[in-house]
Structures are given as structure tokens and as C-alpha cells.
Amino acid sequence: MTTPFFALPIWLENALPEFLNLVPVLATLLHLSLALSVTLHALLTRRNVSATVAWIGLAWLTPIIGALLYLMLGINRIKRAGVALDLNTAWQREHQRTGSRAAAIGSAAGPDAPSAMALAGINRLARQTTGNALHGGNAITPLVNGDETYPAMLAAIESARHSITLVTYIFDLDDVGRAFADALVRAQQRGVQVRVLIDAVGGRYSRGRMMVRLTRRGVTAAAFLPPRFLGLLAHANLRNHRKIMVIDGAQGFTGGMNIRAGHWLARQPKFAVRCLHFSVQGPVVADMQRAFAIDWAFSTGEALLGETWFAPATACGPVLARGVSDGPDGDIDHMRHVMLGALACARQRVAIMTPYFLPDEVLLTTLQITALRGVTVDIVLPARSNLPLMDWAMRTQWSRLLAAGCRIHLSPPPFDHSKLFLVDDAWSLIGSTNWDARSLRLNFEYNLECHDTQLVTQLGALLQQRMSEAKTLDAAALAGQSLAGRLRDRLASLLSPYL
Length: 499
Description:
The protein contains 17 helices and 17 strands. By secondary structure, it is of the alpha/beta class. It folds into three domains: 15-74; 81-112 and 137-319, 2-Layer Sandwich (Endonuclease, Chain A); 334-498, Endonuclease Chain A (Endonuclease, Chain A, 2-Layer Sandwich), CATH 3.30.870.10. A 15-stranded mixed beta sheet has the order 4-3-2-5-6-8-1-9-16-15-14-10-11-12-17, sandwiched between helices. A two-stranded parallel sheet has the order 7-13. A hairpin with a 3-residue loop joins strand 5 (244-247) and strand 6. The chain starts with 9 loop residues before the first helix and ends in a 6-residue tail after the last helix. 46% of the residues are buried.
């Protein structure tokens, strides 16, 4: 009888049944060891009790898979603190050597007291939290949609003489993206130092890769945390959501707007998206550049030093402003603390406009308390966002806010991606942060805290216009939602820490 070519060796054939009998035991030991490891790591490193309990429960109740999810989503491996410290030290040494005012941006120098009408408590809180000074002498101009933003940014790129830095979450390879790419290439060709940082996940929203296009044409560009296989497990959930452009170290742009055709409404894009961005001049631009430089050094190892990147600070406007960086490393909870402090200081009015609104329990309760003590609280949200799950989850919080006296306004299409936070008549927060767990716990964000009555009045008029177009939510209509709809919303809300 001929032995088949696929026959197992005798020793393996005899050992195989015993090995198969051991598989359940080995799997159980693996599960126990992984679950125990997750438990110990979560207890020692995580600060949020509810999240710690959730991760430990997932690890024990979902064998192996729960531990893998914790490995991928539950551990923060990004450590930029060393990069920031090295750069701050280098900037301070350069300041001592050259006397350059702009090089000293790592210190807390600059005006440190807001005007009499501003909120002294939030100024102190933000200074203690971020370590950044409140800089006077800034000019901040709101830019509505891509119609005002993109021409201003493109003109600034064309006028650049020394340097251009740009970080963005999405940089689409569409008509608008190509216009920016061509302008950046022309700047590079005329001798301007250009550095472009694109989030590696956000950069994949477009079918074509803008970073590839830029590098092939000679522009120095890099991806923030590219999600290779092992990197995907470590960093897939931690994204750079900042939008900052700085020209010659003196003129900046920041806000909530990505680079994509949908924001240029006059061109009637297929998927129109409203948003706000801001032109910034004055001493606070150095902080914007510092935020970019830390991200760039972390991503590429290159340190940006000298007056090519940091122009001497020049006062050019009335706004006192402070940069507030936030991220899942050394800057964690900066934005959350500033938001909570601003709500605590509010005396007359709070106005919030955001595309995604899923604040955690503490923020939600603070909003309720703010309204209950007599402060007018207006919250402007899109009637329908680009994320149905987010829309469903957001609805579960509305009844609590309405019961406390908050007013919720649902703006009609097109989808409104604007982000504003105004308190009384003197304080505003502008930038990239949304009111959700992803922005406040997982993303790298950048905002400007501004003390100026004229700016708040201008932004308040913009917000009032959006409110006039919106439908104010009615508690009775919300209570009349079907049982199926309420169950759907409650299920979606369980995903709120990850939305």
C-alpha cells in the first residue's frame, strides 16, 4: 500500500490529539494573562474611572479580542513632551544668543492681564493650565466659508518671502487642493522654505494622495503618524486635527476648515460644507508656529529655528490672545479645562456652535448648571451632520439640556462645520476643537483663546445669523419621538467615547 504524499509523520500524528486537547487550556491561559495585563495597565495608567472599568470589563468578558482592542485603542504611546522640551530649550538659547523676541516663545513672556472687561478667572486658569501667556497686540479677522478663506490663504502663499508652514487634517486632491499645491510649488521654486504636514488618516479622504503629489514636485511634506501595520495598532485612533498655516512667521491662519472643494460654496460643490476660519496677525502667531514646529519635529526630526520661521513680534491689533494646544500626551485636558473654566466664569451668556456635540458627563452637567444659575445658553448644531451615528447619539443629551433651560438651535443644510465658543461680551474660543470625546481626548487640536469685546460682537453677529436660519428645538417634539428612534439613539450613545 502506497503512503499518500500528504501523510503526517508518525510522531506528529501521535502528538496531535494531545496537542488539540491542550488548545482550550492554552487559550484560557492566554485570555487570563492578557486580561490581567490589561487590568494592571489600565489601573496604573488611566485616569478616567468609567473608561478604566469599561476597558477592564471588555478585556475579561471578550476573550483575547478585548485585549487586542485595548492594545489598539486604549493605550497612548505618543510622547511628544521630549520633543517639545528640546525645542523650547533651543528657542530659549537662541533668544539669549540673538536677542530675538520671537525666539522666546517657549516662555510665558508677554502681556499677562486681560482688559477690565475680560474674564480674569479664565485668564488665570488658562495660563496655569497651558503655561502660555496672554499676548496683546493681535488682529484676528473671521473668514466665512472657503469663499473668503481660500483666496486669502492663496494670496498669502503667493506673497511669502521666507517660509510657509501648513498643517491640516484633510488636504483633498480636488480643484481647491490642486490650487493650494500649485501655489506651494511656486513658492518652493522661488526659494521659500515650505513645510507641509498632513494627517496620515485625514490625507486618505481623497482618492489621490496630496502628500505624494507635493513631494514629487519638490515640496517638503510629511505625514503625521502614518498607520503602518504595527503603527496602526498603536496610533490609528490618535489623529492630528489641527489647521494652522503660518507665512514668514508673521501671518497665520487657523480655525476649523480643511482644504477641500466642499467649503467653497460659490462654486456650488456637490457636498457643500459651511465653516469658519481666521486670519491672525500679531505676537500670538509665534505660538501657532511653535505648535506646528513641535508636530513637525516629532514627525520628521527637523527643528525649525531662527527668524526664517519666527519673525520679530509686532503689535498690530487690539486682541489679547493665547494659543491652547490639546492632545493625548503632555497637553491632555487643556481644552476641557479651559471650556469648564469659561462656563464657570460666565455671567450673562454662553453661545456654542459646533458640528459634533457629545460632551462628557462633567461638561454636560456644567452646561446645565450654567443655565440653571440664569446664564443664557445657546447651542447651535447642524440639523443633520455627515455622521448619522453622531446625530443619533447627540439626541440623547438634548432633553437634559432643554430641561435646564439651554436653547438648542438646529441649522439647516448645508452641513455647518463651524466651531465657536463665546462667553459674555468679551471672551471667545476659536479653532479646531469639537465638543466630543474624539476632539477632547484623542485628537491633537489647536485653538486661540481671545479676549476682545469687538471680536466677540463680530462673532456674535455671525452666530445670530445662523440662529435666525435655524429651527429652535422644542421639548414636546423631542418627547414625541418613537420608541424605535429612542432605542436607536440610546444604542448609538454607547459609542460616544469613540465617535
